[in-house]
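It is time I had a proper look at our fold encoding. Can you supply me with one protein entry, sequence and fold together? It will help me judge whether the discrete encoding reads sensibly. Leave the record below and I will have a look:
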Amino acid sequence: MIKVSVMYPNRKDVQFDTTYYQNKHLPMVIKLVGSALKRIELDLGIASKVPNASAPYIAIAHLVFDDITSFQEAFGPHAATFAADVKNYSNVQAELQISELIQF
């Protein structure tokens, strides 16, 4: 299995509408990607390792797929739609990482 992490860096002037992201954007992703998506998790950053410092990421969405091919085939046709929606919830560009998922 693989995990696609979509990470939104936190910075002084960041705007991120978590309500929109949770109630509009992620449901749209779930609907359009379909059954290739095995599960999705959302981390909302609340702190850093440094006391009283902001979290390095304001939000991280983790999308789990069987493999890179299934991710690319399900996500690719809708990538432009997902990218166009960013303006509705944030002023920061996400970083994306694909990782092999190993469970213990």
Q: What stands out?
A: The longest helix spans residues 18-33.
